[in-house]
Amino acid sequence: MAAANDEQLLQKVHNLSDLELATLLSLVSREHCLVSTSPEAVDELTEELCLIATRTFGLAPVIISCHAHTTLDDFAAGILLAPPYQASSPNSNSSNNNGRSISPLLSSTTAAAAASSTQQIPPPPQIANVVIAKHLDRAPLAVQIQALELLRTRRIFTRTSVHTAPKHFLFIAAISADSGGRAHVTPHLNDFFYLAHWQDPEEGFAYLDEEYDGSDVNDDDDAASTDSSLSVVKRIPGPTEGKPLPPPVFTDSEVAILAQLTQQVHVDVDVMRYQMNIVSFLRMHRAVGGGVTPTATKHFEQLVKSLAPLHGLDYVTPSLVGLAAKKVYLHRIAMVAPEKERSMQWGSELSAVEGILDGVGPEDVIEDVLGMVAMPQ
Questions:
Q1: Is 198 helix (H, G, I), strand (E, B) or coil?
Q2: Which segments of 41-84 are extended strands (E)?
Q3: S-S: 137 plus which of 6, 130, 184, 265, CB 3.0-4.6 Å?
Q4: Are 193 and 173 in contact (CB under 8 A)?
Q5: Using CA atoms, how far apart are residues 170 and 38, in angstroms rounded to an integer?
């Protein structure tokens, strides 16, 4: 029976999209991620992430759109879910929860006070399970620092109260970029993100594409109107509109099982040496100006182990190490300025160094290092 359950869980994993896998890995490790795409597809990316949160994992998401004038109050209010207010019953003005009637002989002021005292006080707003910070790199420095404190302490302070993040909490920075690479956020916040993923719009967005393919199209509409509907931002059906959402693909218990399996993964000493060699070669690469931090090394080790159960393994393979390196260091590596490249200290020509570094990005550095470091046999 256990083997059958494992096969069923692995089948679910294999059916996930790349965005869903990035979300799952972050939830398993209880870390946070950075997701980017082309500038024209950021709206679709955030909507897709919301659908992933609700339909794949059954979590409550919010989207907060950041810009240069976002304030700390805006950020704090944007990550909170509205409290579930309950509608008053028709007789709420004449009886309380204990079934006791309010005397009609009371004055109007006294009766109103008695009625209000019997109403249930709504709970305070809670931080959403999944916070999608759209264009976080455009937010002021103070807001980015506030986001970092939220990730570090799992709490946020407002003018009147302190809000604590729920048990299942995921913060996703959704930014625009022409390709994968370092995000323009404060370095400490950038380093705190567990992994990064760049979504190619050409590959589509699974849930949004499914909604569009299954939508009703008027036979009288022409192709132009059909094409224009692709650019419309889809609304995510809430719990009170449309039919109820189906059960999530992944339950909390299944995410917990993957987290437990991660703790049981074995890493051979040769694979560990290979992993550390990659870190050393990245740090010493001539095009790297920084970003290979101790936090990155910790996340590297953590992600390597988290990938193994998703492939049905209880041990780490060299190929999983290479895959993890691409996800952990993609947004962290800072490219060196040509005038600061180390060979300049030995008399290299600046024009020659500029020619060597021209067009080289984090993806190229990682591929170069993976090609140089010998894999264990």
A1: strand
A2: 61-65, 80-81
A3: 184
A4: yes
A5: 22
| CATH code, domain with 279 | 1.10.8.80
Predicted confidence at residue 220, as pLDDT, reads 45
Mark whether 20 and 151 lie in a shared domain: yes
Q: Which residues are CB-contacts of 324 (< 8 A; sequence separation ≥ 6)?
A: 300, 303, 304, 307
Rounded to an integer, what is the distance from CA 314 to the centroid of its chain? 26
Residue 161 CA to residue 147 CA, distance in Å, equals 17
What are 117-140's pLDDT values in tens digits? 555 666 778 899 999 999 999 999
Helix axes of 362-372 and 318-329: crossing angle, nearest 10 degrees: 160
Q: CA-to-CA distance for 285 and 368, rounded, in angstroms? A: 9
Asked if residue 128 belongs to a domain, the reply is yes
| Domain C-terminal end among 252, 273, 305 | 252
Distance CA 189, CA 177 (A): 17
Assigned domain for 354 exists = yes
Final residue of a domain: which of 252, 275, 309? 252
Q: Which domain holds residue 139?
A: 16-81+124-216+247-252
- Which residue carries 């609700």 as its tokens? 54
Amino acid at 339: E
Structural domain contains residue 271: yes
Are 60 and 181 found together in one domain? yes
Question: What CATH number is given to the structural domain containing 21?
Answer: 3.40.50.300
**pLDDT, tens digit, 9 for 90 and up, residues 237-269:** 444 344 566 789 999 999 999 999 999 999 999
Confirm whether 307 is domain-assigned.
yes
pLDDT of residue 74: 94
Tell me the CA distances in angstroms from 79 to 5, 37, 45, 70, 76, one per residue in order: 36, 22, 18, 13, 6
> How many domains does the chain contain in total?
2
Place of tokens 């604590």: 164
pTM of the model: 0.81
Domain identity same for 54 and 158: yes
Mean predicted lDDT score pLDDT of the chain = 83
pLDDT tier, 270 (very low <50, low <70, confident <90, very high otherwise): very high
